[in-house]
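#onboarding

Welcome to the new folks! Below is a worked example of what a typical request in this channel looks like: someone posts a single protein sequence, and someone else replies with the predicted structure as tokens. Don't worry about understanding the tokens yet, we'll cover that in week two.

Example request:
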Amino acid sequence: MTCMKTRRRPIRPLLAALSILAASTAVFVPSAAAMRSEFSSGSKSARVNAPAQMTLPTITGNPVAGQTLTTTNGTWSSNPTSFSYAWQRCVSGSCTTVPRATQTSFTLGSADVGTSIRVVVSATVKHRTTSATSAAVGPVAPAPAPPPPTTPTTTTTTTTGTTTTTPTATTTPPPPPPTPVAAPQASSAPVIAGSAIQGSTLSASAGNWSGSPTSFAYQWLRCDSAGGSCTPFTPGAIQSAYSLTVLDVGARMKVAVTASNAGGSATSTSSASAVVAPPPAAGATVTVSAPNDGATVAGSVPFTAVVVNTTPSRVELTVDGGAMTTEYAAPYVYNGDGNMLDTTTLSNASHTLTARAFLSDGSSVARSISVTVQNTATPPPPPPPASPATSVSGIGALRFGDSYRNASGYNRYDTLIVGFGDADAAGATSARSLVYKGGVDVTDSPNADPGASLSGVNYQEALANGWLLKDASGNVLHASGYGNYLGDVGSLAFQQRWVQNVSTFLLVHHVDGVFIDNVLCSITGLSGAAPAKYPNDTAWANAQIAFLAYVGPAMKAKGLYVAVNSFCYGPDDGSANNAWWARVAPNVDGLMTENFEENPSDYTQPLFDAPTLSWLGNWRGKLNVITAAQSAGKDALALTYGGAGNTQMMTFGRASFLLVWNGTNGSFIYNTTDGSDPWNTAWTAAIGTPTGPMSQAGNAYVRNYSGGYVVVNPSQSTVSVSLPAGLKTLTGAAAGSSVSLGATSAAIFTK
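Example response:
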């Protein structure tokens, strides 16, 4: 469980884009002068920036020989003080400057017929000059044919007695002028298709246009990660398709399409592509390096795995999908470095060994092999655990992976929390058996059973249904420090699938219920960033409550118990956590507080009772949390971590819990950090039920039980506390009339 440990990941800076001159498309080019710093003689003056093109020059006029074309200057920054012009003829993308064509207007001649015409406009402020090139118009059409020659005719006029013949000339009227052609207009923008990954090719449609364009020109633009500050560039960026390079990684791409006809030209720009990603790394693989696949093994053998092409967040090594070792760094060895798989604990038969590597993006890769165990004799079944006639009220065990097999006697506990691989074994005990599941966490399932996973909804399901949470930039979120994906707990469809997967698994394996981890009031404490769907803690808290409001009643309707590890950051007195628990409680049966009465960063350091000195003085605040759960009518679960031999910590935790325990339901759990058997009478002694509330004895606190007595010293000094008659130490010796307790220590006595 990880809710107490968080860290932030650095954000990789985006790769800066490099702008390059385009020789045959509408781009602007800084001159050499524009790239030098400017200083006045002898002293530094205010820098004058070179003009920057904001919109391209535009040519108007009919591209027909004999007609005149005119250009605009375009628009520029820095208020240019002068402009110059160079008209160019273009054939098949190759352009040459027309001699002496240096005005804003250019009259087309016969030499221009069949070519396209563009103009280069240069803007100057002081000595800093920048040029921009218009879109080309054309091809230029020939001039219309001249009118036909005059045809002579004869007109005869008759008068009385006289006939007069007079020659006249008539002229055929010229043909009407050609109908003006309207310049193209875009009715829909160009569209980019293709994967935004380095090495892939993007392609652009021309978009839809009116005016029947006769040609299209393309210019690709490299933009920042938000799709702004776009810059045209070449080479390779003036066709309808463009292959992404390393310079594009971290940028978004656009394309500007210029459509032309006899009436002129117009440009339309596409929407931005997705952020260009680097090429995928070579596929990660995991192999079982020992034993060999198909081998026959006996006794103790190494079971190791090797991962290549990645550094996984963890590797799980399992035997037949049950017993499991989790390794967080190489070498990946079953039972930990230098240890072996003891095959004498397995039957003489075929067994499956699996290594599964979990990657930083939450996915995983796995490799399984089969081995045949053949020991000289089938080992006898282990003896039944030595258990008292009844379980000890108010204690529990948390056992994951191999730690389950490192202990026995689970019938002695009230509560037993296990991983999915030990569900059958836990379900066979008399303890209330709960299987660990992440609520928001999303991980892989090691086999076809979606319930056989640390999460209620596995990665494949979440990916297929859009249930992976993303930040405002579209990046998938992960849990800080351990890399799991985060699921959309506020989605009803996600909630329904969670209940379907988990309830089916629990009922098949005959366990009593589920333990849901990471029910937090703040998402940023888990991931370091807020999801776009839940942009603040209020929205996230409401999503968590919606999840529990559906999951809790649905699971309980199937006869299943629901416990949660729940926390809310806030004041040291536990008030924020208690307010959060008040919202969580109506939908669950049990509430856990993790790192009970200990420093979560140092399991050897108990909390003490001095809240004004330090947050480590919040001993009483932790008691308040237990009281809050019980006041809501729910079972209180308190979890303390520590070494197998740290009797001070285990006794201090259990005794503090007993000061406020209601004596009916709930459990204190001591979990050994090395996975060894946690049972120790220093914290597991049975002392019955409380006969009254706790009371203060100087700096210490005491409470009487039907079968024992509890004394806790939460202060930072040694205290001596008087004891009632008839008490015994946990070794059975008479306790005496008083007990001396060092700082932050406790004692539990029997009667």
